[in-house]
Amino acid sequence: MSNILEVKNLKISFRTNNGTVKAVRNISFNLEKGETLAIVGESGSGKSVTSKAILGILAGNSIVESGEIFYDGMDLLKISEEDMCKIRGDKISMIFQDPLSSLDPIVKIGKQITEAMLLKNKLSRKMGRIEFNDMLKILKENMVEATGNKDDINAEIEEIITTFDKFNIEAITLEHAYNSALTRSEELLGYIADKRFLVSKNQKVDVKAMLAYIASQLKDIRNPFLTSEYDEVITAFIEEIGNVKSSYVAPKFEGASVDTPENVVELLERLDKFLAGVNSGIRPNFFRIGYFKYKKPEAVLDGKDINALNDDALKFLMDNFMVRFLELEKLAVINSFNRSLEGKKKIIPMLQEAKKFFLENDFNKADAIGKIDELSNVLDESIDLLQFNKDSIAYTFKSSINAAVNKYFTSIVHNEKEEKRFARQSARREALISKGKTVDWKVVPKTVYEIDDLRNNIALVIDRLYDKYVVDVNAADLVDFDAMSVALVDFFKDKASQVVYRVTKRTAKERAIKLMEEVGIPEPRIRYNQYPFEFSGGMRQRIVIAIALAANPDILICDEPTTALDVTIQAQILELINKLKKERNLSVIFITHDLGVVANMADKIAVMYAGKIVEQGTSEDVFYDPRHPYTWALLSSMPDLDTNEKLDAIPGTPPNMIYPPVGDAFAARNKYALKIDFEEQPPMFEVSETHSAATWLLHPDAPKVELPKIITQRIEKMKKGGQSNE
């Protein structure tokens, strides 16, 4: 499996009045597509801080000292907030700990589920138009440059680009009309479902108004690509609705005069089946048909078989336009790529020189800015503007290196001030004590930055771009320009469709109701109009899960989603998350303080303590072969039904992370601690290809320590249980 998320060397601190809290200290992990990674540890270990860094929602006093978080080729720590908005909630969603605090108590549940759908759709349509126009302009410029900027070719390029733009506008117009009719059809399905639900609950419904509304909507769903073959059926339905008399109305309906509503209910059922069939029809390829209609505006498309129309339109497009367009587009793609490649070759030695400059020289700010400007001028040449999947390392290089350099200089000034302040306060305190006075205050510890670390941070920014560009240059001969050209056309098609993909309030409602059904909310049509206080804790958490799933994300982050729930409801929520993960092929990061919670759902486990990952491996590695004393402590304190031994509480409290321990952070609470644990942090020792732990007990010269008895007993029981299950 491939990694969908990579976290590398992440360090995060927080400024406080008492000093700087080192919350996350150089952690790294990968999340693969379709797997569940559990991050386990006590409160304050840095679990939630890590998840918030992934989503870009850290508090204002946070400091991301170093690290990278890669998703879809982008470093989430470096991209703009505008780009992050496209990912947050869409591609990466989060379920928070307390469902009640996650929901607005005075807003109905339905609105809270649909709000993000509607807002994201509005932004998506706007961005689709901008990105289409910007990329078309860049394509034209590269076509002109690639063909030598000759007048005759330029005239052809102008005509081709204009034709491409105009027939895409035609395609957008056709698709917009189709989408509008389809949306009306989906809305009408939802409306009928609402009325049928009310009937099933013996609620009163105004039949006359209901049927009048249905008839008006049926007229509006007519579209040559959607309903042309059903025109006679629609006409028949409208006529049948008009013939329904008040004598057919049942007591369940407003103005009832007879005992049974079979004919009205049966009509609604037939309409429901008909509309479901309409909505499941073959979708036209509007990109192809747009060109056909642009060139032949008089053509009648009503009643055409969609498959045949798609095929005919493709042949017409290829014969009359697309072959030449792809020829010129490929030249443009090669031109943009080669220009970028030359820029990369040019900047690679400059990056090596810049790294040496920042690491080996006592540079001043003016020299540093000059060096950055020198790199930036060449950097622009190295970016391939026709690559629609942006290289976030290149695009964010300027801002990243500027931030690292500014941090370096502000930290030098800060360190000088801190040293003076600390010396001044210390001298004052010592003077008071020497005079025999009682001093009931302490000197605030000095917070200084390691200047060498700050230099290394600048070098890391340079290294990231250097390593990326070296790989790109070495792989230049393997690039498939035909595939790149086709992908660029697909990009234009996607952006054109994005412009006209509209989500209305009623369609959003139907999607919300389906989501509520998916997460196990009973009678969602009633629940849709209720407030959070009308739901139990478990039902509220299901609503929060539905909101997180609304955009069909790739990654779902669950931040202690069962902590506020009782044990029986916890099991239901865990089962639900597991089910949704399998059905939607989600990748899940599950954050918890309880190893028992993730025993049956995690593929991999990372155990965190005091801002560091102290052990990581597969679920089997951690439960059947734990190696770090902190993991032992977590397992020993975990209750179960079979253990007769007294549970071992973890002694002491986590360290104050304003003053991180010099050695192993768990040493003070660890009865197995060695002398070296108090002097030096242990490295990650590899136990197997999938398993590693940061403990000196794994050093070849360390004394052998037996697992706690309570853990060995549990492992034996788990093994026996696994064999019996087999």
Question: What do you see in this structure?
Answer:
The protein is α/β, with parallel strands linked by helices and 726 residues long. It has a domain at 344-478. Helices cover 55% and strands 11% of the residues. The chain contains 22 helices and 12 strands. The protein has helices at 47-55, 81-87, 99-102, 109-146, 151-200, 207-220, 231-243, 262-279, 286-295, 306-360, 365-382, 392-395, 397-434, 451-474, 481-500, 505-518, 524-527, 537-549, 567-584, 619-624, 629-636, 709-725; strands spanning 3-16, 19-32, 36-40, 62-71, 74-75, 92-95, 555-559, 587-592, 604-609, 612-618, 685-688, 691-693. An 8-stranded mixed beta sheet has the order 6-7-8-3-9-10-12-11, with helices on both faces. Strand 4 and strand 5 form a beta hairpin. Helix 4 (109-146) crosses helix 15 (481-500) and helix 16 (505-518) packs across helix 18 (537-549). Mean pLDDT is 86; it is low at 246-261.
Structural class: alpha/beta
Strand order of the largest sheet: 6-7-8-3-9-10-12-11
- Helix content range: 55-70%
Binned strand content:
5-15%
Kindly report how far apart the N and C termini lie: 26 Å
Tell me the radius of gyration.
Answer: 32 Å
Mean of residue pLDDT values: 86
- DSSP summary, beta strand count: 12
List the uncertain runs. Answer: 246-261
How would a crystallographer describe the biggest sheet?
A: 8 strands, mixed
